[in-house]
UniProtKB/TrEMBL annotation:
It comes from the Bacteria. It comes from Streptomyces bugieae. Residues 1-26 form the signal peptide. Keywords: Signal. This is SH3 domain-containing protein.
Length: 133
């Protein structure tokens, strides 16, 4: 009897999880969809506004190999000079997404929210969608 209840519960859980749209987890990767947040604008305070409401800065985790720092550059590309480094696994605020030179095929770069500089989206896992600059 208990096995049947347990099996039925597991089947119900799997069925419920199957109903969660794949889009909900698709935005968690570092690759952004081009033009998805093209309607995002900035007003005088530098705070992004989407559809008339303020958007808090997204956060992202540096996903470089262990003990390998992530370079923070002065612009969105590998030709810009390195101005700082972030530790692997560290979490930082992301202000916006822009395009620049490709890193392993990914042309997207994140502008950091609370310090100057840009990091390649290839090495950052964004916890939610980051608006375009």
């Amino acid at each position: 009897m208990n096995r049947r209840l347990f099996r039925n519960g597991v089947v119900a859980l799997v069925a419920a999880l199957a109903m969660v749209p794949a889009v909900a987890v698709a935005d968690s990767g570092p690759y952004r969809h081009p033009g998805r947040y093209a309607h995002a604008v900035h007003h005088g305070g530098g705070v992004p506004v989407v559809a008339g409401r303020h958007v808090r800065h997204a956060r992202g985790e540096a996903v470089t190999p262990p003990r390998v720092p992530l370079n923070v550059r002065s612009g969105p590309g590998v030709t810009y000079r390195v101005i700082d480094q972030l530790g692997s696994g560290s979490v930082h605020g992301l202000r916006c997404t822009t395009t620049g030179s490709r890193v392993h095929g990914n042309p997207h770069w994140y502008r950091l929210a609370h310090r100057p500089g840009y990091v390649s989206a290839h090495y950052v896992h964004a916890f939610r969608t980051v608006p375009w600059c």
